[in-house]
Design goal:
Layout: E1 2-4, E2 14-18, E3 34-39, H1 40-44, E4 51-55, E5 71-75, E6 85-90, E7 93-102, E8 105-109, E9 118-120, E10 126-136
Parallel strand pairs: 1-10
Antiparallel strand pairs: 2-3, 4-5, 5-10, 6-7, 6-10, 7-8, 8-9
Length: about 140
């Protein structure tokens, strides 16, 4: 059984958005290249009251492009479905894995060959806290 498990709304924070794309090079700092502003809260957060942020710890999801230290935007309002990357509690411990549902069987699947999938059985108690909507990588 999956139980779908709110935070304060983010304040607006519009920042400059350059209209030109940058395949290789640098944007012109000239004001006439400005397309307008962009607020990352508006772009990345669809359900402000149901969104929270977490940092990835470990390497079990590197195959999905999620690296140690990445910032995740997690949305509790999104319905978890097979294939979603979820933040889940299993036996009271939070984990980050891909949800896999087949017939009446549920797994939490890592995206790294060194880790085994976890099949949810019996009284293990799976609670999905939210679905990962975005990841922010730092270099």
């Amino acid at each position: 059984m999956i139980v779908h498990a709110c935070t304060l709304a983010p304040l607006p924070c519009p920042l400059p958005l350059f209209g030109s794309r940058i395949p290789a090079g640098y944007p012109s700092p000239a004001d006439d290249d400005l397309e307008g502003t962009i607020d990352l809260n508006e772009q990345l957060i669809r359900h402000p009251a149901a969104t929270f942020f977490l940092r990835v710890q470990g390497d079990s999801m590197t195959g999905a492009g999620l690296r140690d230290g990445d910032l995740l935007v997690v949305d509790r309002a999104c319905e978890p479905k097979s294939g979603s990357i979820v933040v889940a509690a299993v036996g009271g411990e939070l984990i980050l894995k891909r949800l896999k549902i087949e017939s009446d069987r549920i797994w939490l699947v890592p995206e790294h060959p060194d880790y085994a999938p976890l099949e949810i059985q019996g009284e293990m108690g799976l609670v999905v806290w939210g679905v990962v909507a975005h990841a922010v990588h730092s270099f």
